[in-house]
Amino acid sequence: PYNRAMLKNGDAMFDVGSWLLLVTVVAVVGMAACQGSRPNCDALGKLRGELPDSVAGWTAEGEGTIYDTESIFSYIDGHAEVYLAYDMRRCLARRYRGPGAEAGISVDVFEMSTPAGAFGVFTHDRDGDPVAIGTDGLFRYGWLSFWKGPFFVSVYAEEDSEASRAAVLELGDAVSGAIRSGGERPSIVQALPTNGLDQNSVRFLYSHQILNSHLWLSDDDVFQLTGDTPAALGRYRRDGAAAYLLVVDYPDASRLDTARRAFAVEFLNGSAEAGPARQGDNGWFAVAVQGRRLAGVLAAESPDVAAALLQDAIEGREHD
HEC string of the chain? Predict the structure, then answer.
């Protein structure tokens, strides 16, 4: 048995045995947190150790490099802002050398703070054909992308060939298999009515800059978008007319009201009415609020489509 000596520090008395027991409990809790909470353990480092060293004749060049939020600019300068907008933590980059005259394949695994962030990065570019790899896997011209848990994965053949395509898919499947965690799509994405929605157009975002990269609206952050305002954007075609719908959830009524007023000034000619109102060649705009959710119809080609889409968004309609 340990010595239950007492340590005295001023008026405070500490039982050494109890202190050792507390340290043991904290250590156990910390280990459990590492297993269940990604911020407390090196999930990306562990993933790096599970990637194959070779696949279909392509051989890894080293164990790969892990970049953080500062060093990432040295790797993808000019595009890192997209990942940082979704709260990227780190990125694992590993290159595989091709056999013979075949070019290399690059694997990039971005660790985001949440599965929602990984999904958001994935939605930034949704071109491609569906493949059963990861979550929502897409493949086109030697480039595979998918998300799974808090990870966004890109596997890219530097030169497209039949052999490199097969290797990209096999390597991507191996990366997906090494990711044990899963995650759900952000709930706000389900707020987009499905009638007339182009599913490949759906974007999840938190950032004014990301919104403008898909649909430029204004230099000003009309919608007051930040990390605590999840938003979903979708493109529609109804009755031969196109339109966009943006839905945003706000943490408090004050910011919601600020965004609604800014929308009215920017797109509704300052009117307090919900619209639709026309902005020259930019089309018809309308806005409505339900609880702490704002729905804005943007650049609609028809006032009737704008009004109907807005009503469906507020009433939660999904189908005809």
Answer: CCCCCEEEECCEEEEHHHHHHHHHHHHHHHHHHHHHCHHHCCHHHHHHHHCCCEECCEEECCCCEEECCCCHHHHHCCCHHHHHHCCEEEEEEEEEECCCCCCCEEEEEEEECCHHHHHHHHHCCCCCEECCCCEEEEEECCEEEEEECCEEEEEEECCCCHHHHHHHHHHHHHHHHHCCCCCCCCHHHHHCCCCCEEEEEEEEECCHHHHHHHCCCCCCCCCCCCCCCCEEEEEEEECCEEEEEEEEECCCHHHHHHHHHHHHHHHCCCCCCCCCEECHHHCEEEEEEECCEEEEEEEECCHHHHHHHHHHHHHCCCCC
Look at residue 79 in the predicted model and tell me its pLDDT.
82
- Rounded to two decimals, the pTM is 0.84
pLDDT tens-digit readout, 97-134? 999 999 999 999 999 999 999 999 999 999 999 999 99
